[in-house]
UniProtKB/TrEMBL annotation:
Keywords: ATP-binding, Cell membrane, Membrane, Nucleotide-binding, Translocase, Transport. Its EC number is 7.6.2.9. PROSITE patterns: ABC_TRANSPORTER_1, ABC_TRANSPORTER_2. This is ABC-type quaternary amine transporter. It is an enzyme of class 7 (translocase). The keyword Secreted does not apply. The keyword Signal does not apply. InterPro entries: AAA+_ATPase, ABC_transporter-like_ATP-bd, ABC_transporter-like_CS, ABC_transporter_ATP-bind, P-loop_NTPase. Residues 5-236 form the ABC transporter domain.
Length: 259
């Protein structure tokens, strides 16, 4: 196994400043197979990002356990790469040095220096390796962030709304890039998104979460062949089904890609 995730009976609570307790996650059970692309979708504030942070090892569960390849997740690890909506590049470092940063921090750069340019090339930034973050577009900066995560060869790549700040056309192009990288690397990918179309376009399974305290309402398998057409009747039918399950409007983004 390389990159299988299991979440068993996970509960996560937070204490607010007024001492009131908020239950973010309530009894989450989930299994994600090696090499799957899975999206988490649900209302804002329902706990999608919280679950992602637990899988990353950045926070601990109050109840239940999480595993990667049957090893309990207790702390962060380079085996679980994390990409946020904000690329969070170091502004004083070039693209090359941003991507190399993790290898240098782990003292393995000398033995793996060729990997840096390899992953810069993989995300399509070959001509920008010496550029600085302020010289990059939003999409290019997010590509650099992806390369920085992938250079560590993570078993699992965790994506917290990585395309949410991009314009529609850049976002669609980046979705295709994610699929290309996923197919080439075979990395398990788990993505938080508010965009139903994006979830269907990218995923093998779409996990629909309830409002807080969050539980898993439904796990929907997406059996559409790739590449997927957003105006395909089966795509639109699945979209309507997921929106119906969500039981609300106004929170989930509904881009008119097909108009």
């Amino acid at each position: 196994m390389v990159g299988e995730i299991k979440v068993e009976g996970v509960v996560k609570r937070f204490q607010q400043q007024n001492a009131e307790e908020v239950i973010a996650l309530s009894g989450i059970d989930l299994r994600i197979e090696t090499g799957e692309f899975v999206s988490l979708i649900g209302p804002s504030g329902c706990g999608k990002s919280t679950l992602l942070r637990l899988i990353a090892g950045l926070n601990g569960a109050d109840e239940g356990k999480l595993y990667i390849d049957d090893e309990e997740i207790k702390k962060p690890s380079y085996e679980r790469g994390l990409v946020f909506q904000d690329p969070m590049l170091f502004p004083w470092l070039s693209v090359y040095d941003n991507v190399a940063f993790g290898l240098k921090a782990r003292n393995i750069y000398k033995a793996n220096h060729a990997e840096v340019q390899k992953f810069i090339d993989l995300v399509g930034l070959s001509d920008f390796s010496r550029s600085y973050p302020h010289q990059l577009s939003g999409g290019m900066a997010q590509r650099a962030s992806l390369a920085r995560a992938l250079v560590n060869h993570p078993k699992v790549l965790l994506l917290d709304e990585p395309l949410g700040a991009l314009d529609a056309f850049t976002r669609m192009n980046m979705q295709d890039e994610l699929i290309r990288i996923w197919k080439e690397r075979g990395t398990t990918m788990i993505m938080v998104t508010h965009d139903v179309d994006e979830a269907i376009y990218l995923s093998d399974h779409v996990i629909v979460m309830t409002p807080r305290p969050a539980k898993i309402e439904r796990c929907i398998e997406v059996q559409l062949a790739r590449p997927r057409a957003r105006n395909n009747p089966e795509f639109l039918s699945l979209r309507s089904k997921i929106l119906e399950i969500l039981h609300f409007t106004g929170t989930v983004t509904e881009p008119n890609y097909y108009l």
